[in-house]
Design a protein that fits this description.
11 helices; 286 residues; alpha/beta; 8-stranded parallel beta sheet
């Protein structure tokens, strides 16, 4: 399977308390569209009360320059209503839904029970089939949780199987609070890729930058070829905890891949300019 890099500026921005101007979002996303990422996680259709940073997603989507890029656009929805709104945008290729296997986090993140969230996945999958979109299910808290909720690799595998039975074809295992152990990363990807070969499994690993390399290596060695990251490791889930663990830094991931002679498809000659732009975007709001 060809390696896919997914850049997540939505995840990087969503927890910020200061609003990133719409024009600045558009400029930054257009820059990212020129680098060769497989997918750009670029916005979300959720309540502006919950995530005020993403209240301009519709305007941003309609202002992006897609004339010279192969990068696909993904947006997040936390309920069916949000997914229905997202599905109206022809330029959107994929809709992501955060399906937690931790009951506590599911309630915190989408204000619903796990059973309700499962029903929502079923509804959104049917909607995606009708509107020619791909549903990406994020199994959040997929490597454990800080709430004392039951977790083991078999539980994550069980939920992946349930998603497969609904017709979901892309699942991203999410280390929402950056607590994943290397053995869990390795064993889960090995197990799931073998048992559910029809599913494309991805890694959405939040981490302290000091530990990115060993986590990335564990997932890659276990067969994962779809990786989420965010430039400079900005962001994290605002619903997870007060002390956010950042996203896996894209530029460090790419450097690791180059050192290991792994073809990632990103135009590195544009990365310096992108890093400088990221500094402007994220520093401008402080």
């Amino acid at each position: 399977m060809e390696l896919k890099m997914i850049e997540c500026p939505r995840d990087a921005m969503q927890g910020m308390t200061h609003f990133v101007p719409t024009s600045m979002k558009i400029e930054y996303l257009n820059q990212l569209l020129s680098l060769g990422f497989d997918t750009l996680d670029c916005g979300s259709f959720v309540s502006p009360k919950a995530i005020p940073q993403m209240r301009d997603t519709a305007e941003v989507l309609n202002s992006l320059d897609l004339s010279n890029t192969q990068t696909k656009l993904l947006v997040i929805a936390a309920n069916y209503r949000g997914a229905l709104e997202a599905s109206q945008f022809e330029q959107v290729h994929a809709i992501g839904f955060p399906m937690s296997i931790s009951p506590t986090f599911q309630l915190r993140n989408t204000n619903s029970s796990i059973d309700e969230a499962y029903h929502t996945v079923d509804q959104i999958q049917q909607l995606c089939v009708k509107t020619n979109k791909t549903l990406v299910v994020y199994l959040s808290m997929g490597f454990g949780n800080p709430y004392g909720d039951v977790w083991n690799t078999e539980l994550t595998a069980e939920w992946a199987l349930k998603m497969s039975r609904l017709g979901v074809s892309t699942i991203s295992l999410s280390d929402t609070v950056g607590s994943a152990q290397l053995t869990a990363i390795s064993s889960l990807f090995q197990l799931l890729i073998k048992e559910l070969p029809q599913i494309e499994f991805g890694a959405h690993l939040h981490t302290n930058p000091a530990f990115f390399q060993e986590k990335l290596a564990s997932a890659y060695s276990a067969g994962c070829r779809r990786f989420d990251g965010a430039i400079k490791g900005f962001g994290g889930c605002p619903m997870a905890s007060d002390q956010l663990t950042g996203n896996m830094p894209t530029e460090l991931m790419l450097n690791w891949m180059e050192q290991n002679q792994i073809n990632h498809g990103i135009e590195m000659n544009k990365m310096k300019e992108t890093l400088l732009m990221a500094d402007r975007v994220f520093n401008a709001v402080h």
